[in-house]
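Morning F.,

Quick status update on the modeling queue. The single chain you submitted on Monday has been processed. Sequence for confirmation:
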Amino acid sequence: MTAITAFGLSEQRLRDGLEEELVRSMRAEGSVPTLHAIAASIARILEQDHLRMAEQLEAAGVRLDPAPPGDGRAGEP
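Structure tokens below.
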């Protein structure tokens, strides 16, 4: 029997995490849903998702070359 494992964060975890990040960002910016708060929240939850995927790949034996922080080109030469 084949086990099915979610890759990255689950849909529920993404929604919950995005909601938490939006509330945190909005509180920091005066409880207003600014574009900056929304963008920052999405970026943070996507980073968490990418980190989870990297952990899963490493656990499966896949080695990733690290990219410089903020580069956005993981694995590119």
